[in-house]
C-alpha cells in the first residue's frame, strides 16, 4: 500500500462550474474492478492507484444510464488539490437534468451573440432581450465585458433578438434559428453609437425610515468601476440628477461627516430613463457637511452597526499600532490604517457573511493575521514574476516533471495568459487573493471589476476585508473544514484538538505549511482571549 500514488481530479461542466456529488469511478484500463465514489464539495475525485499504470476516469452525469470514460491517464502524472487533473463534461448540469419527453430528451442549446454599436465598439453590460419568434414575452439578459451574451433555447428554435434604442424601446434586430447551438458569436450591430445611450436617473438620500433628507448637504463618493475613477457628488436637498451611460457600472458610498464612508451600493442603468438610486443612511440625526479637506460636524451621528469584534478585543490580540504600514503600502489610502477604522470595516464584512460563531471566527482571525504579514501589507511583497507566463515559455516543459513545467501549467490553468498578468494578479487583500481566475471569481461575486482594477483589493479597505471573508468562506471553502472538525462551533475542545483543525485550515488557505507554528500560536492566543472575555467584545 505504501507504493500507491494519489490522483486528484476535478470535474467541471461545460459552463466551467465545478460539479459536486457526481457519480464517478476509476479503474485500470482493461480491468473490471471499479472504484465507485462521488465528487466532493470542490468537485474533486481523489483516489489511489499503483504506479506506472493506465487508469480510466469515468462519470455518470444526471439522467445518463451508464458510466462514460471522460479521461485516460497514466499514474505517473502529477496532481494535487491545488493542481488537479481537470475533466470537463460536454454539457452543463442543467442540460443533463432535462427530463425525457416521449422518445427523445428535451435539450437546451446555447446560441452566442456579440453586440457592438454602429462604429463597431463593443458594448458591455448592455440589455438584450430574446424570445421565440411570434411571442410577446421576452427574457432580458446583459452582455459581458466582451459584448457577449448567451441565449438558451430548444434546438431548431426560431429566436428573435431585441436591442435597446436611445428612444428607450426594444426593437427586433436579429432573427435566427438556434439549430444545435453556436459557440461562434453571431454579430449584432446597433444602428447608433454607444454615446447616444446616456441615461438619466436620480440619486436620492434617505434616512433609515425611508424619508428623504432635505436639510443636510451630504457628500457621495461615486466610483466608476470600469475605470477606477472617483468623483464626489454633493446632495443638497436629498436628491440630485444622475447621468450615466447605459450599462456603466457605478458604486456609491455616503461619506459620513468625519470623512469615513458607509457600505457601498452598486448601480448600473438598464434604461434611458432609469429608476432612482436610493441610498439609506442608518442614522438618528444628520446635521453635518463633508467638505473637501476637513469636515465640520454640528451634531453627532448615531450609527446602529452591529459589533461582532470590539476594538478592545482587537487591540488586546493585535496591539494598537496602525495597520498596513510597510513601505509597499505608501501612497495608498489604506496605508497606516488606524485599528478604529479597520474594525468598522471588519464588522461590516463579518455581518455581511454571517461569520459569527466562536471557533469559525477564531480560525479566520488567526489566518488573516499571518496572510497579510501581521497586518503590515495588503499586497504581496514579491514582484509577481513567478506567476507570469513570459517567464515560463513552452520550452520549460521539455523536462515534463520540472518545477518550471508544473508552474507553466498552473499559470495557464489560472488564466494568467497575457504578458504582465503575473504582477497584475499577484496577492492582494487580507487573504492574498492570487491569479486572474481568483480575481474573476471575486468580480463575479461582488460586481466590483477587480479584473481591470486589481488595486482595489489593496487600495479600498472594505474590499480588502470583504474579499478575505469571501475567500475564506467561499473561494477557499475553509469553513467546510471547520464545520467538519467541530460538532459545535461554540463548544469546548482541547488545545491539541484545535491545532489539528488549524493545520487543515492553514493548508487550505495557504496551500502548504508556511507559517504553521505562528498560525497555531495565534489561534490559541485568540481563543484564550475569547474565553477570558466570554466572546469577542
UniProtKB/TrEMBL annotation:
GO molecular function: chitinase activity
Coiled-coil parts of chain: none
Annotated SUPFAM superfamilies: Lysozyme-like
GO BP annotation list: cell wall macromolecule catabolic process; chitin catabolic process
Residue span, Glycoside hydrolase family 19 catalytic domain: 419-475
Protein's recorded name: Glycoside hydrolase family 19 catalytic domain-containing protein
Lineage: Bacteria, Pseudomonadati, Pseudomonadota, Gammaproteobacteria, Moraxellales
Amino acid at each position: 500500500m505504501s507504493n500507491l500514488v494519489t490522483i486528484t481530479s476535478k470535474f467541471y461542466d461545460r459552463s466551467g462550474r465545478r460539479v459536486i456529488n457526481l457519480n464517478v469511478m476509476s479503474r485500470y484500463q482493461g480491468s473490471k474492478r471499479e472504484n465507485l465514489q462521488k465528487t466532493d464539495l470542490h468537485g474533486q475525485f481523489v483516489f489511489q492507484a499503483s504506479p506506472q499504470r493506465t487508469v480510466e476516469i469515468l462519470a455518470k452525469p444526471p439522467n445518463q444510464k451508464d458510466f462514460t470514460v471522460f479521461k485516460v491517464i497514466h499514474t505517473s502524472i502529477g496532481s494535487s488539490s491545488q493542481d488537479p487533473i481537470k475533466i470537463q463534461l460536454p454539457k452543463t448540469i442543467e442540460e443533463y437534468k432535462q427530463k425525457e419527453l416521449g422518445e427523445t430528451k428535451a435539450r437546451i442549446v446555447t446560441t452566442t451573440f456579440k453586440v457592438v454599436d454602429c462604429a463597431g465598439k463593443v458594448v458591455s453590460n448592455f440589455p438584450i432581450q430574446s424570445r421565440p419568434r411570434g411571442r410577446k414575452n421576452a427574457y432580458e439578459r446583459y452582455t459581458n465585458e466582451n459584448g457577449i451574451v448567451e441565449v438558451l433555447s430548444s434546438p431548431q428554435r426560431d429566436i428573435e433578438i431585441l436591442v435597446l434604442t436611445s428612444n428607450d424601446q426594444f426593437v427586433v434586430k436579429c432573427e435566427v434559428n438556434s439549430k444545435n447551438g453556436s459557440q461562434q458569436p453571431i454579430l449584432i450591430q446597433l444602428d447608433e453609437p454607444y454615446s447616444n445611450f446616456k441615461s438619466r436617473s436620480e440619486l436620492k438620500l434617505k434616512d433609515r425610515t425611508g424619508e428623504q433628507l432635505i436639510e443636510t448637504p451630504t457628500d457621495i463618493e461615486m466610483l466608476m468601476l470600469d475605470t477606477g475613477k472617483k468623483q464626489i457628488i454633493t446632495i443638497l436637498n436629498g436628491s440630485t440628477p444622475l447621468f450615466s451611460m447605459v450599462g456603466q457600472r457605478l458604486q456609491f458610498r455616503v461619506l459620513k461627516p468625519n470623512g469615513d464612508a458607509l457600505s457601498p451600493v452598486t448601480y448600473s442603468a438598464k434604461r434611458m430613463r432609469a429608476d432612482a438610486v436610493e441610498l439609506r443612511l442608518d442614522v438618528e440625526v444628520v446635521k453635518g457637511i463633508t467638505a473637501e479637506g476637513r469636515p465640520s460636524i454640528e451634531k453627532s451621528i448615531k450609527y446602529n452597526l452591529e459589533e461582532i469584534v470590539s476594538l478592545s478585543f482587537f487591540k488586546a490580540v493585535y496591539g494598537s499600532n496602525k495597520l498596513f504600514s510597510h513601505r509597499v503600502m505608501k501612497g495608498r489610502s489604506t496605508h497606516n490604517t488606524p485599528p478604529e477604522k479597520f474594525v468598522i470595516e471588519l464588522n461590516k464584512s463579518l455581518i455581511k457573511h454571517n461569520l459569527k460563531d466562536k471557533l469559525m471566527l477564531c480560525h479566520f482571525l488567526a489566518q488573516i493575521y499571518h496572510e497579510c504579514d501581521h497586518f503590515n501589507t495588503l499586497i504581496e511583497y514579491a514582484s509577481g514574476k513567478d506567476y507570469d507566463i513570459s517567464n515560463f515559455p513552452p520550452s520549460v516543459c521539455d523536462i515534463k516533471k520540472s518545477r518550471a513545467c508544473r508552474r507553466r501549467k498552473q499559470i495557464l490553468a489560472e488564466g494568467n495568459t497575457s504578458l504582465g498578468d503575473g504582477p497584475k494578479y499577484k496577492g492582494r487583500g487580507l487573504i492574498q487573493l492570487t491569479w486572474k481566475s481568483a480575481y474573476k471569481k471575486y468580480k463575479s461575486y461582488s460586481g466590483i471589476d477587480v479584473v481591470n482594477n486589481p488595486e482595489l483589493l489593496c487600495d479600498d479597505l472594505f474590499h480588502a476585508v470583504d474579499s478575505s471573508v469571501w475567500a475564506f468562506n467561499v473561494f477557499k471553502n475553509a469553513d467546510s473544514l471547520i464545520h467538519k472538525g467541530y460538532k459545535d462551533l461554540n463548544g469546548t475542545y482541547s488545545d491539541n484538538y484545535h491545532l489539528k483543525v488549524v493545520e487543515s485550515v492553514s493548508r487550505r488557505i495557504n496551500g502548504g505549511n508556511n507559517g504553521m507554528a505562528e498560525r497555531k500560536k495565534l489561534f490559541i492566543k485568540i481563543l484564550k482571549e475569547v474565553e477570558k472575555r466570554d466572546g469577542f467584545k
